[in-house]
Design goal:
Layout (H helix, E strand, L loop, with lengths): L2 H22 L2 H4 L4 H31 L13 H18 L1 H11 L5 E2 L7 H28 L1 H6 L23 H13 L6 E2 H18 L13 H10 L10 H5 L19
Parallel strand pairs: 1-2
Length: about 280
């Protein structure tokens, strides 16, 4: 890629920095910062806002506005559990947003197969590439998640901190980002790996990374939309109660293909299998 084309990525990133930081912080605070630091600060700010808005709205709707409708009273998480989840998520947030910041740096330097404008490849190619990208992400997250259970040191030192939320009354949308920071980075890593394997639209890649926060809130609320083949909250709640099933991300396909799928109809979610 020539320098003029790479400048398009820098311009897009700079525009995003201005949109987010320019509305929330005085210019004298963020404008003197190096571009990389500006991008990290923008991602941190946007990630924090998305996390709190999404989780608060989700929680208000299911736990207050629709009290005892979608979630039984005895399954509503306590304030203490929610505050702990917020603490863990916010402690890790500065590290979470390092991944999209680094991926933007690699894109801006031409190390990936990203393109700036959909018109550069056409809508058909964009759609096909996006589909392949999502398959790579789905496959990668499935196996990273599964191995974070099967490899005992990974589970003990990283993933176990997320699995303290192991029943309905300790799960909430706020638990979606309550991970050890390295664990969260590992599970989002397929988004970056895919950039080296398939042409991908720059803005779509960044948007999908932040959609992860919204999706994480959705699958931890214990309320299932029952839309096949989506890996809804009912499937993911089984994962938190059995520890051995439903490792998938957006869909159930990887669990079906590799023999780890358990359907909500086949599990009462009241019995826990052996826990490490």
């Amino acid at each position: 890629m020539d320098k003029n084309y790479l400048q398009l990525f820098v311009d897009e990133s700079s525009m995003a920095n201005r949109i987010v930081l320019g509305r929330l912080l005085p210019a004298k605070i963020w404008e003197p910062l190096p571009h990389f630091v500006q991008t990290w600060l923008r991602n941190y700010t946007a990630g924090t806002i998305i996390y709190f808005i999404t989780c608060f709205l989700w929680s208000f709707y299911f736990y207050i506005y629709k009290y005892n409708v979608y979630v039984p009273k005895d399954a509503i998480p306590s304030t203490k559990a929610v505050l702990l989840q917020i603490y863990v998520a916010m402690k890790a947030m500065p590290f979470y947003v390092a991944l999209p910041t680094v991926s933007e740096y690699m894109i801006e330097n031409g190390w990936t197969r990203c393109f700036s404008r959909i018109s550069d490849v056409g809508w058909l190619s964009y759609t096909v590439n996006l589909g392949v990208y999502l398959i790579i992400v789905e496959f990668g997250i499935y196996w990273i998640h599964r191995e974070s259970h099967d490899i005992k040191p990974l589970y003990k030192h990283l993933h176990a901190s997320h699995h303290i939320y192991n029943k309905q009354n300790t799960l909430s949308p706020f638990a979606g980002l309550a991970f050890h920071p390295l664990d969260a980075i590992l599970q989002a890593l397929p988004h970056v790996i895919a950039l080296f394997l398939v042409p991908m639209h720059f803005t779509s890649h960044i948007a999908l990374l932040f959609i992860e926060a919204i999706w994480a809130a959705n699958v931890h609320d214990c309320v299932d939309g029952k839309v096949w083949p989506v890996m809804g909250a009912a499937y993911h709640t089984i994962h938190h109660t059995t520890y051995r099933h439903n490792y998938g991300h957006y869909t159930v396909w990887m669990d079906w293909a590799f023999g780890t799928l358990r359907h909500p109809a086949d599990c009462s979610c009241k019995k826990k299998e052996k826990i490490r």
